[in-house]
Specification:
This protein is an alpha+beta fold. Helix content is about 20%, strand content about 30%.
Length: about 240
């Protein structure tokens, strides 16, 4: 965990880490190929995106109904490296047991939300094929959503959210084709972005145009696990 402190976003009130180039270009392309070549039945199509759940969808939104492992092509290179970082040491199973893969076309997003206590309060997200601006919102009694922080996540990077950044804030992606007003004052991880990314945004006057689809891989540890296949077989 000491290694992680280099990548901690110190302007935030609690722990959030951003590691650029967590995987290589070659690993990224291999992952994209495997994701896009799964059987069509693996995809769940929603109104603003489509997703895959590995090893399966949660039952009643809270129970992982299988002890099957996440496929090895997700374990290597991502899960094994997050385990080496020590971020799952305090979780129920010592490693993530669930992965959601979301595919966003340019302009698509997701409403502000929280992941909740179904999971150990830690989420590790890898972005593929394109960058994205993640908005972090303060919770409020009046229901109004106020952006408190903004994160620009580059392709191949890892974003780790935990503690109060997980439990006391919402996160979302605006449904827009162009993100605006991006600079060192508005983006919490600006100092960790590559020179190429910062130069590109600066040359576009603080704009980021979402010209390609983006795929996000979110890894979590579901607390409640039941081997329902074994139960049904026993019946």
């Amino acid at each position: 965990m000491k290694y992680l402190e280099t990548y901690r976003l110190m302007s935030l009130p609690d722990r959030m880490y951003y590691i650029p180039d967590f995987i290589s270009d070659r690993e990224e392309q291999s992952l994209i190929g495997k994701i896009l070549n799964v059987p069509s039945a693996r995809w769940t199509v929603l109104s603003h995106r489509r997703l895959q759940a590995w090893p399966t969808q949660l039952l009643q939104g809270s129970i992982l109904p299988t002890t099957d492992a996440i496929p090895n092509w997700l374990v290597e290179p991502i899960i094994s490296r997050t385990i080496d970082l020590g971020i799952w040491n305090a979780s129920s199973h010592g490693q993530p047991n669930h992965c959601l893969i979301n595919e966003y076309e340019p302009g698509q997003g997701i409403l502000p939300h929280e992941d909740g206590d179904v999971y150990f309060p830690m989420v590790a997200t890898v972005s593929l094929n394109n960058g994205i601006v993640l908005d972090i919102y303060e919770k409020s009694d009046d229901g109004k959503r106020r952006v408190a922080y903004r994160i620009y996540q580059e392709p191949r990077s890892l974003l780790i959210t935990t503690d109060e950044m997980y439990t006391k804030y919402l996160h979302g992606i605006q449904e827009i084709g162009i993100d605006r007003d991006l600079n060192s004052e508005t983006v919490s991880n600006w100092h960790l972005l590559s020179s190429e990314t910062k130069e590109s945004i600066d040359q576009n006057n603080g704009l980021f145009k979402r010209g390609r689809k983006r795929i996000s891989l979110t890894f979590r540890d579901v607390k409640a696990v039941r081997n329902l296949a074994k139960f049904l077989h026993a019946k």
